[in-house]
Amino acid sequence: MHPAPLALTMGEPAGVGPEIIAKAWSALKDEGPAFVVVGDATLLREQGVAVHPVLAPAGARLAFARGVPVLHQPLAVSARAGLPDVANAGLVADWIEQAVSMALAGEVSGLVTAPIAKAPLYAAGFRFPGHTEFIAELTADAPFSGTRGPVMMLTARNLRACLVTIHAPLAKVPELVTAERVIRTAWVVHESMQRDFGIASPRLALAALNPHAGESGAIGLEEIEVLIPAANALRAEGIAITDPLPADTLFHDEARAKYDAVLCLYHDQALIPVKTLDFWGGVNCTLGLPVIRTSPDHGTGFDIAGKGVARPDSLIAAIRLAGRMVAARA
User: Fold this and answer.
1) Which of 157, 134, 162, 167 is nearest to 147 (CA)?
2) Neighbour-count burial of 254, counting CB atoms closer than 10 A to its CB (0-12 exposed, 13-18 middle, 19+ buried)
3) How many domains does the chain have?
4) In this structure, are 42 and 123 located in the same domain?
5) Residues 139 and 1 in one domain
6) Residues 95, 136: one domain?
7) Within 10 Å of residue 305's Cβ, how many Cβ atoms?
8) Which of 24, 58, 85, 326 is surrounded by the most beta carbons within 10 Å?
9) Are residues 2 and 139 in the same domain?
10) Which pTM was predicted?
11) What is the pLDDT at residue 167?
12) Helix orientation angle between 228-236 and 179-197, rounded to the nearest 10 degrees
């Protein structure tokens, strides 16, 4: 029996979302995973692909090979490439909320989210930092058997880099990296590796905060005072995790073979190696939620929207990863 299709939210209609969705469907229409777009069918037709409006996600699988299945939610005003309009911002949030509701109801097996633009959403009253926090709130009351996220994971090739802090100024990172935060993040990652990736005994690595892992306190005390105690506590609870390791030795081919996921302490510590390994094909995945959620690891691309040059690699990778996660949970 085939799983329910994925829900793919269109994201910011004035960005590259519609274009890369059309290109992703063209690449996946014969092999899947099947998805249904939550968004504006007219805007997708303008990308030059066949479109099949459906009334419910159940109709998406049969339609998928013939055209992009769409749950049509028309825009408030016509989208102009590269020029976001606050009049459409509420609908962008509604698309996400509808997709999450369908995932919680089992009508779709997970969701993939095309990029959104924060400025028009904030102007329309959106009160969340981004997708991740919005989806976490929408799923907060849903049954879930694991440790709650959200934890942001960026993945490329065989690297899964999981963030302890996300969009924090570098000056604030040391105070935000607490033992409690490290322990909770590690539990979310450990359980997700088992549940979503089928790894029975996950091996986690922990990145150090300071150069040379603090060099026994000579270049910082966070490893001694926070990270090593957190790692010890986790190992006492049955989590296989290393002591903090120097970040400059964690990401080469031989090092990556020794762990299934790595806990990174701040944004660039994770994003630089991910984007170096696969700049076009990296995926953003949210761990620790009752629903599966992946996203391309790039923004709205207003500067290239409407020019036909946007690459769909990251969206295709996000759809495929969501499909593998669905299979693992099943």
Assistant:
1) 162
2) exposed
3) 2
4) yes
5) yes
6) yes
7) 24
8) 24
9) yes
10) 0.96
11) 87
12) 50
CA distance 108 to 35: 8
| Stretch 44-52: mean pLDDT | 97
Q: What are phi and psi of 255, to 5 degrees?
A: -65, -40
Residue 32, domain member (yes or no): yes
Residues 138 and 152 in one domain: no
- 257 lies in some domain: yes
Same domain, 313 and 236: no
For the CA atoms of 117, 261, 208, 295, what is the dihedral angle to 10 degrees? 0
pLDDT at 2: 80
Given a cut of 80, whether residue 92 has pLDDT beyond it is yes
Give the 3-state secondary structure of residue 324.
helix
Instruction: Tell which residue, 47, 38, 45, has the closest CA to residue 107.
Output: 38
Does residue 219 share a domain with residue 231? yes
Domain membership of residue 199 (yes or no) is yes
The DSSP annotation for 195-218 comes to: HHH--SS-EEEEE-SSGGGGTTTT
Residues 66 and 188 occupy one common structural domain? no
Mean pLDDT of 204-209: 98
Mean pLDDT of the chain: 96
Q: What gap in Å lies between CA 154 and CA 308, rounded to an integer?
A: 26
| Residue 229 belongs to domain spanning | 145-288
- Of the two residues 66 and 2, the one the predictor is more confident about is 66
- For residue 108, the model assigns a pLDDT of 98
Residue 1 has pLDDT above 80, yes or no: no
* Three-class SS state of 138: helix
> With 70 as the cut, is the pLDDT of residue 171 above it?
yes
153 three-class SS: strand
Q: Does residue 294 sit within a domain?
A: no
